[in-house]
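Worked problem 6 (solution included).
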Amino acid sequence: MKGGHLAGDPTDVLADERGTRSFTSARIAGTLRGTGDLLAATIAACLARGTTLEDAIDYARRRVAAAIERGVAFAGTRVTSFER
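Solution. The predicted structure is:
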């Protein structure tokens, strides 16, 4: 579950047969769109390549943070950059 739109620092939650695990990071300022979709798509792509779930989540969270930091202001929001 992604938690970027909740108040406070964004906390994503993994729920599986072992219970729940939370992933919290500092919020990066800005009005953003599509970051949860980017997170989910990146996790799915990593899993498709054979990455473990934990590594996929870690990589995806770092990838989203980097995309947010490179975001470009557009039409009143910040659009994430998808450059490699």
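Discussion: The mean pLDDT is 80.
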